[in-house]
Fold this sequence. Notes:
Layout: E1 7-11, H1 16-27, E2 31-36, H2 39-51, E3 55-60, H3 66-80, E4 85-88, H4 104-132, E5 135-140, H5 153-173, E6 178-185, H6 193-197, H7 203-210, H8 221-232, E7 243-246
Helix pairs in contact: 1-2, 1-8, 3-4, 4-5
Amino acid sequence: xxxxxxxxxxxxxxxxxxxxxxxxxxxxxxxxxxxxxxxxxxxxxxxxxxxxxxxxxxxxxxxxxxxxxxxxxxxxxxxxxxxxxxxxxxxxxxxxxxxxxxxxxxxxxxxxxxxxxxxxxxxxxxxxxxxxxxxxxxxxxxxxxxxxxxxxxxxxxxxxxxxxxxxxxxxxxxxxxxxxxxxxxxxxxxxxxxxxxxxxxxxxxxxxxxxxxxxxxxxxxxxxxxxxxxxxxxxxxxxxxxxxxxxxxxxx
Length: 252
Ligand code: NAD
């Protein structure tokens, strides 16, 4: 019960890494609010958590819309009484393809969700953190920010922005007792996998990507959730500004 009594908002937690974090945080005692575009899948995760005796709720939220993220933060406060942890996990990419073919619309949408969405959620949460005397922010970046693969340059750069925003805010918000960390997952078996690979998800194609990961497999939602649990918990009380690679050695 590492998170007993804590309230966590997790964006993009209707599937993939976010759903893994929602399940583990709830199992460890947190009340979890999921903000996701996909309301139906989010409600399924909430129901699974409730079936196991955990506390969770969801709302439909597009993190690229300021009103939506403000409503998400308010709902956490109104329903669960506080906000202790904000996990900015929602993210998108264009299909893996040559940089020359990325459209302005794709660029704008990726930056609106992956970068501005993180910025607006943090700005929305900060008044609550300030009032409470502190808080914890965890941003899901990527090994794409550290060891980028070709065909994903715009996505990679958006995750680089998340990384530097996290480190900058760790320094700027420390006087408010707000910790800011990031996790850099390696390619994982989630909804984004085919988008990243740019080809069908066949065992042969997977092997090509797994070949670049020393521990010999893709990441899982459980891998990311366990690292996230540590970073948002009081056990990491003196850790801020790190970008933790959860990557089976990919960035070595
Ligand atoms: P996923 O597609 O399974 O989950 C992403 C979730 O975000 C979905 O539930 C989706 O509905 C939601 N979402 C998308 N746009 C949204 C928006 N505008 N507002 C609110 N919710 C939105 O993918 P995932 O792999 O679990 O991705 C989670 C995070 O992990 C992303 O930030 C992604 O960039 C990052 N990441 C993924 C990998 C990987 O290989 N899967 C690797 C490194 C980093």
